[in-house]
Amino acid sequence: MELNPPREHWYVAAPARALGKKPVPATVLGEPLVLFRGADGRPAALLDRCLHRNMALSAGRLVGGCLECPYHGWRYDDRGRCALVPSLGEGRCPPGGVRAYPAVESDGYVWVFIGDGPPSRPPFAFPHVGEPGWTTFRMRTRFQASAFACVENFLDCPHTVFVHRGWFRTRDPRTLHAHVLRFSDRVEVEFTDEAPGPSVVSALFFPPGEPLSHTDRFFLPAISRVDYRFGARRHFIITSQCTPVAEHETVVDTVITFRFGRIAPLVRLLFEPVARFILRQDVRILARQTANLRRFGGPGFVSTESDLFARHIQALWRGGERAQTDAQVAIRF
Q: What is the pTM of this model?
């Protein structure tokens, strides 16, 4: 059976800009949440359920940094404590409160920790965001697919010659080698002997004559990072954080950061629509995969050594397994 990502990690619940004058509903690993900014302006995350009559707090409003239920007006602060029951008056709240989750704002996102214990580390940091010389754009996409299907897809090179034929990669009979390393919190794959084949992406963005360095990475809980580097001055990084909503629904926040010298703004004008087009191709193919999973029931997957990340991701999600030192895999795209 396919595993779910572990709960004891930070997940993106919403873009930071989404938290304004109204509460924002969100779902992480099936947990219904309501997001808002407290009196101090910091993000807060509560279970989306009023103590009184089970009303969705996300349908309410914000009053003085508190969240007001739309049914009877009960108010809750950013820690989930009852601040007011209007029918009783000031200072007469019942004991207890709504469950509150650790929430922080980082890299333009609101991250929520839904595990049972306190977080042991800060959220993942998207590479080079806001640094001089780097250009960044973002995409938020909802997939009708599991978090595993999404994160593996983003790190799966063989599918690109079929799903993105001519756009991202073209079939190449030459053999290259992948060096696979698994650690306690991540998997790294470095490709050697890779040469860019003819495609729209390579024609537009890959400088001719520059040596290609290609590395793919997986980070817990469900984050992919793909690096293409050409010499010292050209570098593309595509990072995707997958937030599971339900068994076959995932919200993916993709941050694309690249270095391309003075013409980077012009490169973005071309790169962003091409990236969005390619991502839509992945949305369609994963939706078809999900439809067939529902049709037949159960994953029923068969993996080979060319599926470089699948078993390592699931090993990390199971937890408690010894890290593999390294492996060399011959592969063709």
A: 0.94
